[in-house]
User: Fold these one by one.
Assistant:
Number 1:
Amino acid sequence: MRKLFLTFLVAGVLPVCAGAVSLEECLSRARENYPLIRQNELVESLEKYSFANAAAAYLPQVQFLGQATWQTDAVEFPKELESLSKAAGLDIKGLSRDQYKLMLQISQTVWDGGAARARKEDARAGSEVSRLSIGKELEEVESRTTEVYFGILALQENIRTLVNSLKLLEANLSVAQAGAKNGTVMQSDIDRIRVEGLSLEQKLTETSKALEAYRLVLSLMTGLEIGENEIFEIPTIPPVRTDVNASSALQLFDAQAEQIRVRKAMVNSAVMPHFDLFAQGWYGRPGLNMFNDMMYNDFSWNAMVGVRMQWNISSFYTRRNDIRTADHQARMLQNSKAAYQWNFSLQQTQVEKEIEKMNELQEKDRVIVALRRSIRESSESKFRNGVITADDLLRDITEENNAESRCNIHRLEALRNIYKLKTMLGQ
């Protein structure tokens, strides 16, 4: 039996030596290893491009136009004036029906009704929504990582308890074998101790395999190479402010509300008139001097500068429905936020009460463990003296084992719920 005990210890069922793995390191690596984290760089680039495009609305706009047309009629002198001009020796041909124009136009927006500013705000709001959506998923990744990490800690504690129990059984088996030689211990008592030891070895095998699976999952989530002998640190109790909810999920509602507000501003800007300065220069016929063109029909250089107003009245057709749609979306978002806060409050209360319960249980756990250890030590003495049977001893060893296991689990559960609450609150 000693050989079996030593095999488990040497095989690395208990994490010994090697470098320690911390929860903070796992959380950081899980965030970095999550594929969606790379999306943040794309979101920043898209915001920069969208913002630059919106700002370009106030840059001078340059257009080069060319056209050639033929029309069924053109401006000409009335017949009466034409006969008079011929009598004066003037041949006024009128405008040609084929007309040509090559034009360069430069315009500068003076006021666009707030459209450019609304597009900039929309770019910012959209990027913020995207960032917070990614942040929300990363918080879920952190939550899953924390659960796996504490699962590993719980399994490690179970293995420690099982190994300690096996050591106790080994020591008492030696006592029983010595007693059997003296005739004070029956062979059936030795067999009971051996059976209990084999049962514990089975549990140790099952627990070690579960620990191996948890380690593999954590390795995949974090990208860390986690060996069999790595120690997982028990985290310290972190500071948590239960009155501050900085979670990405809650901030996402505010970002989406801002996005709706910006889109209403874009709807309002679409119905406003636009003013711009412009300058046109073109070569072609006819030009601005129409009488000269009617007489000579020549190509000429022309230029024009001015102020222009454009007002798309048709935007009013859909404005009311667009505003109503945005208002409905805002109210739906408020309802969703209220539902989220209601559910979050319930979940937060449950977690806080669970922490309180585990802390209260731990106060009794330490006393129970101490008493169970004292009872087991007394039973060992009685067993050596032949006062009690192996069944009585095994029962007391099992009770001590269970008490230690409950104490460790309650401690880890309290700590796990504290970190769960910390992640829920975005802290």
Number 2:
Amino acid sequence: MNVIISNKYQSLLATLDVDIIKSLNGVFGVEELVTNFSNFYYNKMILDITAIQDYQNIATIQELSVNMDMSKIILLLDDSEIVNSPKFLSQLVSMGIYNFTRNIDAVRFLIDNPNTYKDVAQYHQLNDVGSFDPLPITQNATSDNNISDNVTSRLAMRVIGIKNVTEHAGSTTLTYLLKKQLASKYDVIAVEVDNNDFMYLNDKTLYHTTSNELPAFIASHSNHEVILVDLNDKGPIGSMTEVVYLIEPGLIKLNKLIRKDRRAFEKLKDKKIILNRSVLNEQDVRDFEYESRSKVYFNIPYLDDKLERHHNLDEFLVKLGFVRINDSQEEKGSKLFNIFK
């Protein structure tokens, strides 16, 4: 079931032949949208951008992206010059907002076929990454003094949460390995929430914080391109621009998950499901998808955490949109086992 929030394009959205669980019309502040829908279960939200108060201020869209799961939102753009400018569209992509269009037929398509970074990469102005300025605010728009300069400076930053779905699915080790692999091409840091297992990795560049302090930590490190957040089993996702969900596909782990919550996979619909520490082959993955009625985003096998690089993680990171990783391949003649460094 889907949600429609409309304003200027109410009549156009009324022509959509989709299952609707809730429909609102008018202009709403970001805080009001977050309050009404943060705990409301829906498949997709079709959001008329003119229904967002002060929508031409890119910081407003950033605030929305930080507090809502944008992979479930289809943004119907208006025909204004600001919203359709290359800079505005590039900033949407930088925030991990991939499902946007001005075409009602495209809205219908995106409900069942959400975009990936590859589909919107042409809008991404990589030369602007790290130097985004707030877009000009129109005469009718009002500036929100509660939005700090830190929010504006974070427009190009990706905050990626790594969260366990099955118990202890490996979020800490995977976060550490991804951070190591990204560091060759991106300005990246990693932080663990609530637990402090990072201390056992003997890496002083890894951080620790609490759930309550996480938003402040992100704001204070907004000069980085990427923040990887180890959410462990229960960390909050509200401050993330995107989240990947880890499942260790062992029989005991899966049975425990289903006994705890029989709707677990229903809740993961349209999420980025990662099979981690997996021994499944391609056919096994297809069987898993069929039985769980879910879609696997990526299948990561057991990895040797002592190695410097992993080809599987290169593929995973490129799929997430970190295209510079393609330039990070090992030079010919590198040692296979890295015994002597």
Number 3:
Amino acid sequence: MNKLNSMKAAVGRYLDERRSLGFELIEQGKNLLRFARYADERNHCGPLTQELVLGWACEHVRRTSEVTAAGRLMKIRPFTSYYRQFQPDSYIPEPGVLGRERRRPVPHIYTDQEIVELLEATKRLEPRNGLRPFTYRTLFGLIAAAGLRLSEALNLTVSDVDLDAGTITIRETKFKKSRCLPLHPSTVDALALYRQSRECYFHSGKSAAFFMADDGFCLSASAVSHAFHQLRTFMGWQSRGDHPIPRIHDLRHTFAVRRLQRWREEGQLIDQGVYWLCTYLGHGKISSTYWYLSGVPELMDLISARFESFVTTGELT
């Protein structure tokens, strides 16, 4: 097959064109490149066929839920429309052809005991006399205590962590927003202890990464994922959500769920709390925060109580 006519080349041209217009297409790009490899491995040429497109979406179906397969299809559908300009007989999948596309998988919500176990287990990481165990204990603790995305925690610099004010500054994250987050005093104390230990190993400026690896470089997401996999395997955790295994990102989900539960117990107005939580978490849309009320079993009782109140009094509590 001529490389210029390969599916990988077609995908590359599509991504270059879209990105020149300002679209990042990070996740979509990864999916399209997987589709391109799938097509090129089968020496496909000419118009996209239904067999090719649906075959890729449903590949390894035993390891892929119906929602995931439909989601795959949704992510490459814009490309199929683009490709049809050059191959008019190309197949464009109809919405819903593989079922629901947008159901968010239920996350694993950690218990308090699981989080304690995770932080304690970091002491097992090698080298035990190095900074690494303390780094991961503090990193996972901060994600759990502030509901951060992993990328947000890893991108923190020394100057972003204001121990005197008890805040951290998250800069230019997923939706190009920055936000300053107040922290619980116990979290500030934990960060201060880590900062003190860190300075014994590295004397770095304010622009340096706050979380450092033992080799003096900033932590990578892949290194953190590897360490978390080791700890998860050691503890033998089983997922209570739709994902096959508990994830680091589920610490963020747990933060959101526990905060909403606590407001409910304290009699706070949930709608006001959701707006605050949306800002704190850095969500792009308020609907992403409201999803927690109906998307996880731990908060379904709250939805039931609100619906019962509405039916009885005509007002939401």
Number 4:
Amino acid sequence: MGHGGGDFGLVRDFVQAVYQNNPDLVSSHISRSVTSHKMCLAAEDSRKTGQTITIA
């Protein structure tokens, strides 16, 4: 299972939120997902280049 099973939980929560028409059930909002991906990509760039990466 992808990401140690975390993907299943995200999809499960999303399906339940849609089924129950309750956005509060979504466990990860898109803005947090985008931010965390930006951090991860910057960390990889930093690892490869040895430079500090500023995230805007």
